[in-house]
Specification:
mainly alpha, 68 residues, single chain, 44% helix, elongated, 4 helices, 0% strand
Length: 68
């Protein structure tokens, strides 16, 4: 068993990503287009309608289920 700490066992090129950079949900108001793009779908009228309905029922949680 190694007695080194995680910091000691990392190579000089390894680093931790600051927590503020790990969140990808928009801080501004979420749009239907944001939600469609987060799913990887094309921005089409049908997909925008789907996203609008999802945002009405789930709010910000709709994108939080897709993105960390």
């Amino acid at each position: 068993m190694s007695t080194s700490t995680p910091e000691e066992s990392r190579s000089s090129e390894d680093h931790c990503t600051p927590d503020a950079l790990l969140h990808s949900a928009p801080s501004r108001g979420l749009t239907a287009e944001d939600l469609v793009m987060a799913t990887g779908r094309d921005v089409t009228p049908a997909n925008l309608d789907w996203a609008r309905r999802k945002l009405e029922t789930e709010g910000q949680a709709a994108i939080e289920k897709l993105l960390p």
